[in-house]
Amino acid sequence: MENIDIVLIVKHIIIGLVQGFTEPIPVSSSGHVMIASEILGLGEQGFTFAILTNTASLFAIIYIYRQDIVRLLTHFFLYLKTHEKRYLADFRFALYIIIGSIPAGVLGVLLSDIIADNVSMTTIAFMLFVTGIALWLIRNRHGKKKDTDLRVKDAIIVGLGQAVALTPGISRSGATIISAIGVGMKQDTALRFSFMLYIPVSLGGVVLGITDFLEEPHKGALALPYTATFIATLLMTYFAMRWFMDYEKWQA
Among 8-22, 99-113, 157-171, where is mean pLDDT lowest? Predict the structure, then answer.
């Protein structure tokens, strides 16, 4: 039996906790994971690791929003079938999520290699600074738009914000929440729309990256560290997301 590298496992748990804590809050999880990996001497983690942590965060967020997801999907298809007015609001909200997911989905496929090849600590630091300035500028804004008040234009603008966040250091949740509040959404609507947008784009990333994950030559040797990372990310994302949702309600 090979010796278990406890230090390596602990380092991966720390990375998982960093990913999980920073995924829901607007501070850029990818940027902080890269910084933490550099500090811990793990270097660049690669695409397989990104898929792993992203999937763990995705599972946590799907679980939190499971009732909304089931309702939206059910009412979306019921409206297509019956055209009953009682399903219209949820149909539109689901449709806007689809529309808002397109910019990041398209640009993610077209520019993923370019983005990956041009990432540096300097770039991440600058983008974190940009994210912080943008959050400071909208800190006192309180929109009035609820779920039923959204329009196609709002979905496109927030979707473009998510596309900008493909750059490491630009927070995905930060960019989408900033964009959502910028078009006049209430904080709870902005938060819900932001994380609903995360789900289809993240699912797409997992599907596109599954081949790379299966072909990873070192995944057997890294099974324990990767499992520890996944569990740490899953649990921390869940608790961080719950905390952030409660914080936003308190601030509203």
Answer: 99-113
Residue 63 CB neighbours (<10 A):
13
Contact 164, 203 (CB under 8 A): no
Cβ within 8 Å of residue 102, ≥6 positions away: 159
Specify whether the backbone of 28 is left (phi greater than 0), alpha (psi in -120 to 50) or beta.
left
Please provide residue 165's backbone torsions phi and psi, each rounded to the nearest 5 degrees: -75, 0
Residues constituting the chain: 252
21-58, pLDDT tens digit by residue?
988 887 778 778 888 888 888 877 666 777 888 889 99
**What are the sequence ranges of the domains in the chain?**
6-251
Residue 131: CA atoms inside 13 Å, Cβ hemisphere, count?
29
Residue 43: the pLDDT is 73
Read off the tokens for 123. 């770039």
Residues 6 or more apart in contact with residue 97 via CB below 8 angstroms: 72, 155, 193, 196, 197, 200
Q: How far is CA 245 from CA 28, 152, 187, 201, 237, in A?
A: 17, 25, 10, 21, 12
